[in-house]
Amino acid sequence: MRRIKKAALALCVQTALFSHLALAQDANDVEADEAAGLEKITVTAQKRVQNIQEVPISVAALTPKQLETMGSSAMDIRFLSARVPSLLIESSFGRTFPRFYIRGLGNTDFDLLASQPVSLVYDNVVLENSLTKGFPMFDLERVEVLRGPQGTLFGRNTPAGIIKVDSVKPSQEFDAHVNFSLGSYGTTDLDVAIGGSITDELSGRISILKQDRDDYIDNVAPGFEEEDQLGGFDEFAGRVQLLWEPTEEFSALFNYHFRDAEADARIFRANIIQPGTNKLVDGFDFETVAQDAALRNQQEVDTEGYSLELEMDLGDYTLTSVSGYESAEIFSVGDIDGGYGAAFLPTGGGPGFIPFPSETGARMPDHSQFTQEVRLATNELGQLDYQVGFFYFKEDLTIENLSFDTLGGGVQNGISRQQMETTAWAIFGSADYEYSDRMTITAGLRYSNDDREWDGELVQSPFGAPSFTAQADVDDSQVSWDLSATYEYTEDTNVYARIARGYRAPSIQGRNLLFSGQPTTADSETMVSIETGFKSEVWDNRARINGAVFYYTVSDQQLTAVGGAENTAQLLNADESVGSGFEFDAEILVTDNLTVFAGLSYNNTELNDATLSVDPCGANCTVTDPLNADGRALIDGNPLPNAPEWIGNISARYTKELGPGNMFLSTDWAYRSSVNFLLYESEEFRGDALLEGGMRFGYEWFTDSADFEVAVFGRNILGEEKLTGVIDFNNLTGFVNEPTFWGIEFRSSFY
Q1: Other CB atoms within 10 Å distance of the CB of residue 560
Q2: d(Cα 513, Cα 362) in Å, to the nearest integer?
Q3: Which end of the chain is more exposed for a tag (fewer CB within 10 A), N or C?
Q4: Residue 17 pLDDT > 70, yes or no?
Q5: Which DSSP string corresponds to 634-651?
Q6: d(CA 482, CA 155)
Q7: In a 10 Å sphere around its CB, with 0-12 CB exposed, 13-18 middle and 19+ buried, how is residue 308 labelled?
Q8: Taking a C-beta distance cutoff of 8 angstroms, is the pair 140, 126 a contact?
Q9: Alpha-carbon Rg for the chain in angstroms
């Protein structure tokens, strides 16, 4: 009842706000100063170029300038976390394998087979495996965050939403840039791109990213002491694009991209949580660890992909084909217990109580993904426009879960191998009907078929168990749909309502093979979401304010119970989870020299399953959930993991003309409220509210053929030190946010 009241209150506030703004705009007959106003933002949320204000979806778009500012310090894709209302991103793998959450819905599973309810679409190709989702973000045209089910046009594994990334495309016009930064811990970040005409019909673009950081974390474990042993990375990525336009009616865009990365795996720290609280221990230091396996900590990632996008203008229709191929490899090893030694040894262990050592890894030697989409769309025929299409997906992969004998010098003592083949296809259609001059109705329908075949083998057990093989198959067919209406409330304000259904395909989890377990499976999860919102441009186009309020239910939600005293990974289906909340996005041109972006979201989530239980921690933690007769924690009524109730962000940029250019000062801040890291609740395994801020001060100047910028910048300038994730099976192990970072940067653009 409290959740429904909050949602209703948010709806009333939203309605009153946009009504006040819109009516005030109509009543304002005073001419404003001659100002350019805000630039129009176009998005492709419905697979065609549209003004963001006309799309009946809660969508946020980030501009290249915003992305440049937030991504300073050679950050990976996680820099987007909490920079958009209702969006959180985290990873227990380090700079790769990001896990996305929108409106509180995501997946905490770190297995290389795990699926997510948030999809990443990069240059119109869906990246299914979470390893491929870590592809760096550089030379970008825009990033869109679509909140809520996107099952009609984007299909499987999108019940929470999608993140859509579009790189800058080739054109006949010459342009290039060279951006370089140098910062804390010997970090360098070089981003270079050049594009333009090759012939009258052929354009090209090459984009390169090179990021490096020195090791800066000292290992202080007795007998394993070494300065500057961990924390570094070496990232190299690139993209080559060719655009062929032999006629005005036909174009072919070829895209090749690659990534070659070496880094440390996620750095776990033993017993950094004070028992009975979620506070870091006294004397915590970002720049020290105490591990006996730090020397072997490593992560190597290689990915590459190709895509070909063909487009033919047939007059009243446009025919589009998008073919994509992706492959990825990884080898990753980390000290999971986060400490040294063990309590049963004569020399003991530490820091704190270490019941047993744990050093594990993962390898994906083979992976391939092929996608094909063909769609036919009308070209503004009039009252009715539509698009229809076919989609095909095929993925084959092999993964190996590894264990190592830490006390024996890191010798491999366990390996299990899993192979999975996924085949999916779908047919879909969507239509826009102009019911009147002021109202448009959009409806969509998609039929999807999914099939997964899995084979597993325990090759070597760390406990001497006999080898064995196992098989599992899952398949399902689902119908996704959406129905929305957009109404032009005033000339500057649209209101909309939307109901949509999406799903996540059935899953298989086989990581337990390493410990002589059997695979587990989960049925498809489905979501039905209802939302209503407004999109307004007010104050003579100097302010853009959008808002939405929503309510959703998830049936058979897929959950992964990871860790616990038994240290297992088990797939579960919860009967139901529910969520409700609201989102606001705003962009305001306060003066011609000051622009402010702001966002706020509230998300309330709750699991509803009276009998569902999970294995609680094996560490010395304080479980606050009731326990059943088997000692398992009952999780009914708990919030979803990594689902903060509040996310807020604000950024501002001020410029002042000075000489041939502008002096500028910008700042950006992101806040997320406290989160529960696991399915069960405990005092220790939850994260406090986190506020991280950045700043940038510099000078930009312009010539007839080039723009230049030099700046100093800082990230996490308040020096926040907070938990961002935990390991619960061994001790009070956790990992933390990025430390404070300062740097200088030079940027140049040529045209």
Answers
A1: 24
A2: 13
A3: N
A4: no
A5: E-TTPPPTT--SEEEEEE
A6: 12
A7: middle
A8: no
A9: 26
How far, in Å, CA of 511 to CA of 572, rounded? 14
**What SS3 state is found at 542?**
coil
Contact 579, 555 (CB under 8 A): no
Length of the chain: 751
Q: Which amino acid, residue 566?
A: E
Residue 421: closest CA among 470, 490, 474? 474
> Cα(569)–Cα(565) distance, rounded to whole angstroms?
11
Work out whether the CA dihedral 329, 331, 337, 339 comes out positive or negative. Answer: negative
Give DSSP secondary structure letters for 135-177: ----SEEEEEEEES--HHHH-TT-SSEEEEEEEPPP-SS-EEE
Cα distance between residue 662 and residue 669, in whole Å: 23
Sign of torsion over alpha carbons 173, 71, 695, 216? negative
Contact 488, 543 (CB under 8 A): no
* pLDDT tens readout for residues 105-146: 999 998 888 999 999 999 999 999 999 999 999 999 999 999
Q: How far apart are CA 55 and CA 51, in angstroms?
A: 7
Strands 42-43 and 50-51: antiparallel
- Residue 11: is its pLDDT beyond 60? no
Specify the residue for token string 């606001």. Answer: 584
Where residue 493 falls (left for φ over 0; alpha for ψ -120 to 50; beta otherwise) is beta
Q: Cα–Cα distance between 208 and 194 in angstroms, integer?
A: 9
The span from the CA of 479 to the CA of 683, in Å, is 41
Sheet containing 217-219, strands listed edge to edge, beginning at the edge strand earlier in sequence: 226-230, 217-219, 288-289
Place of tokens 């950081």: 213
User: What is the token pair recorded at 194?
Assistant: 């050049």
Quick check: 595 and 587 in contact, CB under 8 A? Answer: yes
Higher pLDDT, 260 or 32: 260
pLDDT at 25: 39
Nearby residues of 683 by Cβ (< 8 Å), 6 or more positions away: 276, 277, 278, 621, 622, 624
Residue for token digits 């009333």? 12
Query: What six digits make up the tokens of 423?
Result: 């085949």
Closest CA to 525 of 118, 62, 132: 118
d(CA 134, CA 696): 26
* Tokens coding 714: 């800082």
What b/e string do you get for 265-283 counting C-beta neighbours within 10 Å, with b at 16 or more? bbbbbbbbbeeeebebeee
One DSSP character per residue, 602-622 reads EEEEEEE-TT-EE---SSS--
User: Identity (one letter) of the amino acid at 58?
Assistant: S
214: pLDDT strictly greater than 80: yes
Res 6 pLDDT > 70: no
Under 8 Å between Cβ of 403 and 416 = no
C-beta separation of 18 from 547 below 8 A: yes
| pLDDT of 9 | 41
Task: Measure Cα distances from 577 to 103, 164, 556, 563, 684 in Å.
Answer: 12, 26, 8, 22, 24
Nearest 10 degrees: Cα torsion 128, 132, 134, 140: -90
- Nearest-angstrom CA–CA distance, 666 and 651: 7
How does DSSP classify residue 668? E
